[in-house]
Amino acid sequence: MAYDKIITLRGRMDHCIDYVLNEEKTGFATAIAYADNPTQRRPLVTGINCEADTVLSDMRSTKRRWDKKGGVLGYHIIHSYAPGEVTPDEAHAAGVEFARRLLGDKYEVVVATHVDRAHLHCHIVFNSVSFVDGKKYRSDFQSYFGDLRGTSNEVSRERGLSVIEPQGHGKHYTEWTAEKQGRKIVMAGVMQDIDAAIGESFTFDSFLAALRRQGYTIKYGSNVKHTAVQPPGGDYVFRLDSLGAGYTEAHIRERLAAARNGEAYELPEQPPSPAPPIFAPRPVPQVKKRYTVRGGVPRQPRRKVRGFRALYLRYLYLLNRCRRPRRTPPPPAVRREVAKLQRYQKQFHFLLQYRIETDSQLALLGDALQGQIDLLVDYRRELYGARREGRDVGTELETVNGKLRSTRRELTICRKITEDIPKIRDQEQLMRQEERSSHKAVRDRTDEQVRKEKKGKWM
């Protein structure tokens, strides 16, 4: 019974080949040690399309010839047998036959059988670049289950060895990963945090604000198909509709509406009950009781706006005043600033969202966003590698790419604010001075007119 595992080699191949040809593992000297006396060479190390003692230089020469020295350097297959099923010579012969059929017409291969464990196993290391046409070997789901496993089972059947037959249906990769890493435990904590945020909120926007105060990252908006949340310091992003009944966006809005009306809300069953049969009697609708809160909803005192937010609020007020019809048009510099009103409004909402008031807070936020981008890029690189190996990571990739886009947009806004703050301060002072001068001119004209009227009345 042969069990196969394939490993991708990206960094260096010499360490892997040294391990494979280790005489302490094979129980005999390597092919290099026996090069001078071939009669003593045991059949536990075999080179295919190359010599075992020059396999590394042969592989490097092929890469240079086809100018493919980067990326995946090679692959390492571990071909294992059950304890007591084969002798060392039989295991090596079967491993060599398996490697010849799978790779012998295109790639340089070295096969070494290790006998230091109870289960005999062959190590097969081969070049990623074909010496025939320069094409690279592609290791994916189809190549593993179609070519590698199929060839291994074929050789095992021909030699009278047992074959691993799949039983039942395997778990989806996403489900297996979730159970392995404790995703369900994290999901339970997210549901508790959502319950707490609903308890202190009246609208869906205030509910999202409560989650942000707890440290959550929210994926929500007109361009977002599914609302999702990411717990503070967590690696998982949860869509609300994946948390079950009572925690979808529609159910959360219903719970908030029930709380505003003073009604009791019962969570739907998990899973929801099936539709009644065609001839089943219709259920009697229950009359919901309505309650009225006396004295109105208590209002929280407004916090005074300070720092950058206060600066932007004053500046937006002045720009809106400049948009109104005036007898004398504003200066060209002010007109250019009015054209950027929408951009400054977006920056102001960004400052409100993250409660930024000072330069240091803005710098800390920029560093945090850049760090989050670096982590997401590293995680996406791992997901791309998993997809090349044939794993189903499409949903995770879509989530990570969406998070990357939104985080990069926020980092761009953060950097724009850093660039615009000095200019906004100067423009705000100039516009204030101009407005005071305009008011003073109006007052002077009014006083002069009043004096003229009084003088004409006494004459």
| Largest sheet properties | 5 strands, antiparallel
Annotation, overall tally of beta strands: 8
Named at the architecture level, the CATH assignment of the largest domain is 2-Layer Sandwich
Number of helices: 14
Architecture overview:
By secondary structure, the protein is α+β, with helices and mostly antiparallel strands. It folds into three domains: 2-158, BirA Bifunctional Protein, domain 2, CATH 3.30.930.30; 176-260, no CATH class; 307-458, no CATH class. The chain contains 14 helices and eight strands. The longest helix is centred in the C-terminal third of the chain and has 65 residues, at 394-458.
Quick structural gist:
Helix content is 52%, strand content 9%. It has 459 residues and is α+β, with helices and mostly antiparallel strands. The strands form 2 sheets. The chain has a 5-stranded antiparallel sheet with strand order 1-3-5-4-2, sandwiched between helices. Strands 6-7-8 form a 3-stranded antiparallel sheet, covered by helices on one side.
List strands and helices in order, with pairings.
Elements: E1 2-9, H1 14-20, H2 23-26, E2 45-48, H3 55-66, E3 74-81, H4 88-103, E4 109-114, E5 121-127, H5 141-158, H6 173-181, H7 183-199, H8 204-213, E6 217-219, E7 228-230, E8 238-239, H9 249-260, H10 307-323, H11 332-338, H12 341-354, H13 359-388, H14 394-458
Antiparallel strand pairs: 1-3, 2-4, 3-5, 4-5, 6-7, 7-8
Helix pairs in contact: 4-5, 7-8, 10-11, 10-12, 10-14, 13-14
